[in-house]
Specification:
The complex is a heterodimer. Chain A is 48% helix and 7% strand. Chain A has one domain: TIM Barrel. In chain A, helix 7 links the parallel strand 4 and strand 5. In chain A, helix 11 crosses helix 17, helix 13 crosses helix 17 and helix 21 runs antiparallel to helix 22. Chain A contains 23 helices and ten strands. By secondary structure, chain A is of the alpha/beta class. Chain B is an alpha/beta fold. Chain B has a domain of 70 residues: 3-Layer(aba) Sandwich (Rossmann fold). The termini of chain B are close together. The chains are: A alpha/beta, B alpha/beta. Chains A and B meet through helix 5 and helix 19 of A and helix 1 and helix 3 of B.
Chain lengths: 554, 131
């Protein structure tokens, strides 16, 4: 060692010693990303080794770091897709039509808590929750109302539902049928990402294994019969909202994605028969460059793993296409108008990161569901980015930025580290049972909260620049009478339908649920047509599969 | 022996948003309190049973689903029926201003809305619960 010549100091190091270290640097503030990644004061070519062909490539070409399509937004803007749903199917149908009239290009459905948890509106556990956080859907009859006068052959629809996803997909297919649109022509996405429910969002019903079987049934069904439909939207959004870091969001989401791929391959499907229809859903948080790097890293990892580990040959199987939503968790109840600014910056990061569709949050969402005015401003924010800022003119305008490339590589490295840890624990399902993800997220979320409380991180209007006297904002109120209206509706349905057909359909569901060699989608479609309710179908599955309860950790 | 403040942190209803509940649970524990976290998807009955069994001084109810005007009054009422109306009831979550007033009239001691520092909640409990 002693004989080795001293390493030559790089010019960046020389700059740091000679100039930077003599310059002022603010004390007591964090220069790390919001997720805690160290940021050196400067990135330069010599500190960021990038092999252009290997690490970046061209848009539309492996490894898709720079974007999944050759012409990106010069070819087609992202889909502006505002998530909406409240009250009963009638109120939400009205909001859908309002959004379509104002230039929105896709629909996105939010369901209420009872629907997400597989309870009908008249179930005792639904008390007080019907239509509060989304629309209440109990049966095919409600779904018919929800999409009344909306031509399903022309719009694409996204549905945010997980445990009962198979049932809602069946309802949608039946509505299409009654409009004369065959299921192979229906376009849209259903979330179905049950793994992130156990990890973060916590709207689960059944234990992980039967839930994964149901997901795989849907993947198989869509591969055969609904070729334009995305059966799973593998979601990091909720993981991030639960308080994770950007690296955790990236790693846990992709690990979930690999798990769905493995189950489908295990089922006997060819990877190229379903992988092109998998899509993703990420958060757009406030740390601008970290977010952009996250999307770029996600595309690169997915392409590599799909090709090299799972042997996908169709280039469309390598493409990670994703939806983005700005971070609900970043919105403040204090001085809520400032949320318009936060959301605009987050939306810009999503666009610079190459998203395929985008939801921008409304400024009043830290207080309640958004009003129509607030939603319009949120949509206008996207339209300003698309039409006024010029950022859409060049594909991946930040590609080659020393800083962005360094962060992309760093997030990629951290993700692979997590993949190793998850594998050592025996995979995602086992890691869920051991509370691994839940603990990692709780830790990250507590660290961030402490940084805010110690004022190492400033949140405008919350721990600095507060106003003493804030005028309360007008908020959207859900009429409490809607709950009773929905309860009456589902009870009237039960009274008028053919109860023998219902019994028959439920018996078949239970029989097939008990046998792993049956695909449950067709019996669910049949039960939907017989107007078996969503809660009744879920009860049938609960009887066969049992329910899931996590061990609480904090 | 001067005991520790015993607090049940509870998630009523179907709402799965537990980031806030977990942060609060941990902050209260770090401040030296005995914290029992119920976990998710609890009915008002289950929550009150936990409060009684654990002989808690306070219960912190975290709710972000919009169902607070149904679920919280039910918890307060059940506590009263069980003769446990000395238990300090706190609510945290996205609660509109009008509802804050209504909840307080029904017996909730304090409501903490988004942005409230955990230290405020710690201090509040320390001032309200004699140890």
């Amino acid at each position: 060692m002693a004989t080795t010549e001293p390493r030559k100091q790089s010019s960046t190091e020389a700059w740091r010693e000679e100039l930077y270290d003599a310059a002022p640097e603010r004390q007591g503030v964090l220069f790390t990303t919001i997720s805690g990644i160290e940021n050196p004061p400067l990135r330069t070519a010599e500190t960021v080794p990038v092999d252009y062909e290997r690490d970046l490539g061209y848009p539309g070409a492996f490894p898709f770091t720079r974007g999944v399509y050759p012409s990106m937004y010069r070819g087609r803007l992202w889909t502006m897709r505002q998530f909406a749903g409240f009250g009963t199917a009638e109120e939400t149908n009205e909001r859908f039509r309002y959004l379509l009239e104002h230039g929105q290009t896709g629909l996105s459905t939010a369901f209420d808590m009872p629907t997400l948890m597989g309870y009908d509106s008249d179930h005792p556990r639904s008390l007080g929750e019907v239509g509060r956080e989304g629309v209440a859907i109990d049966s095919l009859a409600d779904m018919e109302t929800l999409f009344e006068a909306i031509p399903l052959g022309e719009v694409s629809t996204s549905m945010t539902i997980n445990s009962p996803a198979a049932i809602l997909l069946a309802f949608y297919a039946c509505v299409g049928e009654s409009q004369g649109v065959p299921r192979e022509r229906l376009r849209g996405t259903i979330q179905t990402d049950i793994l992130k429910e156990y990890i973060a969002q916590k709207e689960y019903i059944f234990p992980p294994e039967p839930s994964m079987r149901l997901v795989t049934d849907m993947v198989e069904f869509c591969a055969r019969e609904m070729p334009l439909w995305h059966p799973i939207s593998i979601s990091g959004y909720h993981i991030r909202e639960a308080g994770s870091t950007a690296a955790q969001e990236l790693a846990f989401t992709l690990a979930d994605g690999f798990t769905y791929v493995e189950w489908a391959i295990e089922r006997g499907l060819d990877v190229d028969d379903f992988a092109p229809r998998l899509s993703f859903f990420f958060n757009a948080h406030l740390d601008f460059f970290e977010e952009i790097a996250k999307y770029r890293a996600a595309r690169r990892i997915w392409a590599h793993v799909m090709r090299d580990r799972y042997g996908a040959k169709n280039p469309r199987s390598w493409l990670m296409r994703f939806h983005t939503q700005t971070a609900g968790v970043s919105l403040t109840a204090q001085q809520p108008e400032v949320n318009i600014v936060r959301t605009a910056i987050e939306a810009l990061a999503a666009v610079l990161g190459g998203t395929q569709s985008l939801h921008t949050n409304s400024y009043d969402e830290a207080l309640a569901l958004p009003t129509e005015d607030a939603v319009r401003i949120a949509l206008r924010t996207q339209q300003v980015i698309a039409h006024e800022t010029g950022v859409v003119n060049t594909v991946d305008p930040l590609g080659g930025s020393y800083f962005v490339e360094a962060l992309t590589t760093e997030l990629e490295r951290q993700a692979y580290e997590y993949f190793d840890q998850i594998e050592k624990l025996g995979g995602v399902v086992q890691a869920i049972k051991e509370n691994f993800f839940q603990k990692e997220i709780a830790e990250a979320s507590f660290r961030y909260q402490s940084e805010v409380e110690n004022e190492q991180r400033i949140v405008v209007g919350v721990n600095r620049y507060e106003l003493d006297d804030e005028t309360p904002l007008p908020i959207l109120r859900i009429d409490p009478a809607l709950e009773q209206k929905q309860i009456d509706r589902v009870q009237a349905l039960r009274a008028r339908r053919d109860s023998a057909a219902v019994e028959l359909a439920l018996a078949r569901l239970k029989e097939d649920a008990a046998r792993d060699d049956r695909n449950l989608m067709q019996p669910i479609v049949d039960a939907s047509r017989a107007y078996v309710t969503m809660g009744e179908m879920c009860d049938a599955f609960r009887e066969v599969w049992g329910t899931w309860r996590e061990t609480p950790v904090f | 022996m001067a005991g520790k403040i015993r607090v049940v942190v509870a998630k009523p209803g179907l709402d799965g948003h537990d980031r806030g509940a977990k942060i609060i649970a941990r902050a209260l524990r770090d401040a030296g309190m005995e914290v029992i976290y119920t976990g998710l998807h609890q009915t008002p009955e289950q929550i009150v049973e936990t409060v009684i069994q654990e002989d808690a001084d306070a219960v912190g109810i975290s709710i972000l689903s919009g169902a607070h005007m149904t679920l919280v009054p039910r918890i307060v009422e059940l506590l009263r029926e069980q003769g446990a109306d000395d238990v300090v009831v706190l609510v945290g979550g996205t609660i509109p201003t009008d509802d804050v007033t209504a909840l307080k009239e029904q017996g909730v001691a304090e409501v903490f809305t988004p942005g409230a520092p955990t230290s405020d909640i710690v201090e509040y409990l320390q001032s309200r619960v004699p140890v």
